[in-house]
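Example 286.
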Amino acid sequence: MLTTGKTILDVANEHNFAVPAFNISDYSMFNGIVDVSEEMNAPLIVGIHPDEVRHVRSEMITAVTQRAHRSPVPIAIHWDHGANYEQVLTAIRIGFTSVMIDGSMLPLEDNIALSRKVVQTAHAVGLSVEAELGTIGATDGEAEEGSEAIVYTNPEDALTFVRETGVDSLAIAIGTYHGIYPANLKPELKLDLLKEIKEKVHLPLVLHGGSNNPDEEIAYAARSGINKINISSDIKVAYFMKMREVLADTKLREPLTIQPPCIEAMKAVAAHKIELFDTVGKASLY
Ligand SMILES: [Zn+2]
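Predicted structure in complex with zinc ion:
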């Protein structure tokens, strides 16, 4: 069933697991992600970035929400990295059930003011809100927004932020980057910082840039206060690696012959994440 981010994440918070937010910008890939979530009886957050909405066009969101309505597992449609208040209004209008407002590059006071305004509007129409505090790195030009250097989330600021904004979940910076890490960059999560932040704020915490981190660290984070993990690069890499292989047969031209093996490759990676985050079977909790 179609539901809000808050409904999904509050249960994950209570039961100590994380829900994957898979970034989608292709209808066949979307169906593959819903299929694997249903096969594993796992709740799902479909993350769609404003740039991805521009690519797929807003009419696709209608189809996405209809599939979610019919699904036996809870699904939220989440606007990933809203850049400003006006974008959030677009998300509300076209059918999202959850929005992120990313004021993380602003000074704390401005981030609070913007996030609070978004919360007031989104809550008035039943959507939940994720905000971000601290900055996540970016590895390359294909990655989403991010800065070269990470600014770790300060636990005291996190408490102030949550109290003053009323957000439903908070994305924190504890050492991840958007994109795929180059060979010379060794990602390392500050798991003690995660613990400190969680003890202060108690609400569902979000990890961006969750692709490509060591499995043990991610699995630990998913059981220690992180309740949503954004996965974009990992599933797309799996899909297109397979597509390069399939397209070696230059006689192929039909999407319905080319795409299915690519979707299977993507589903295998998604299934691994669902297991890693301890999300298997958790749809029964809703
Ligand atoms: Zn992100």
